[in-house]
Design a protein that fits this description.
64% helix, 3 helices, single chain, 98 residues, mainly alpha
């Protein structure tokens, strides 16, 4: 994702959450900080989520297991070609595929 797009989303979320209390204070009253906190938590959580799924390939625990995916594709293709000597599928190490 282009950096200017990410920066625009991040700054828009900050500006919206900064101005939100001024728009809610008449209708919500003393509950304004709580409502703004919930909305801000949601927006910043979505912003962080967008940053995380922006690059799904890597070695962290929540990244895609590309080695295992490519090994499965390799085995499937070799099976389709009639090969008998197939490489073993990758097993999880520490409950995590790589």
């Amino acid at each position: 994702m282009p950096f200017p797009y990410t920066l625009l989303l991040h700054r828009t979320a900050w500006l919206y959450c900064f101005l939100l209390p001024f728009g809610l204070v008449d209708t919500v009253g003393f509950m304004t900080p709580f409502v703004v906190a919930i909305v801000a938590y949601t927006f910043f959580g979505l912003d962080a989520l967008g940053d995380e799924i922006e690059e799904p390939f890597g070695l962290a625990a929540n990244h895609l297991p590309l080695d295992a995916i490519t090994r499965i594709i390799e085995v499937d293709l070799l099976e389709a070609l009639g090969e008998r000597d197939l490489p073993p599928l990758l097993e999880p190490v520490g409950h995590r595929l790589t």
